[in-house]
Amino acid sequence: MTGFLGSYLHQLDEKGRLALPAPFRRAAGEGGFVLIHAVEPALFLYPARTWVAVEERLGELLRRQPKARGRVLGLTANAVEVIPDKQGRILVPERLQRAAQLDSEALIVGVLDKIEIWNPELFENTTREAEPGFEEFVRQILV
Q1: Between 3.40.50.740, 3.40.50.920, 3.40.1550.20, 3.30.70.3040, what CATH number should domain 7-142 receive?
Q2: Buried residues in 31-41 as b, exposed as e (16+ CB within 10 A)
Q3: Measured by CB atoms within 10 angstroms of the end CB, which terminus of the chain is less buried, N or C?
Q4: Residue 55 is inside which H or E element, if any?
């Protein structure tokens, strides 16, 4: 399996390091990650191999919609390359911890081609709110 599935509750240490779950490290393969705050309130963690496609889409957006330049600059200016240490931990910069409202705990969630890092309480609130018609959509995809 090459995607990211499941969720794991991990502690952020006093230096802002967060241990990535072993299944996620295995699924990511070799190389680092790009950590970015793109959509409130979570952080997105892209394996290097997946980030290449994101860069291509951002470049295409800039070519087709020059007015998007400010937003793309805002996204990439706050993105950071992170490489897990020998214990499988990544450093989450303080500014990104604040953006995602992370305290001592973080919920690490697999979302197919990327990983999302959430404040556990915000994740619970977000996933509890059901969209109208979502159950029918799920039936079309999964059943």
Answers
A1: 3.40.1550.20
A2: ebbbbbbbeee
A3: C
A4: helix 48-64
Rounded to whole angstroms, the Cα distance separating 74 from 40 reads: 14
How long, in residues, is the chain? Answer: 143
Q: What is the pLDDT of residues 26-44, one digit of tens each?
A: 888 778 999 999 999 999 9
Inter-axis angle of helices 48-64 and 69-77, nearest 10: 160
pLDDT above 90 covers what percent of the chain?
78
Residue type for 45, please?
Answer: L
Three-state DSSP class for residue 29: coil
Q: List pLDDT tens digits, range 45-83.
A: 999 989 999 999 999 999 999 999 999 999 999 899 999
108: number of Cβ within 10 Å: 21
Whether the predicted pLDDT of 128 surpasses 90: no
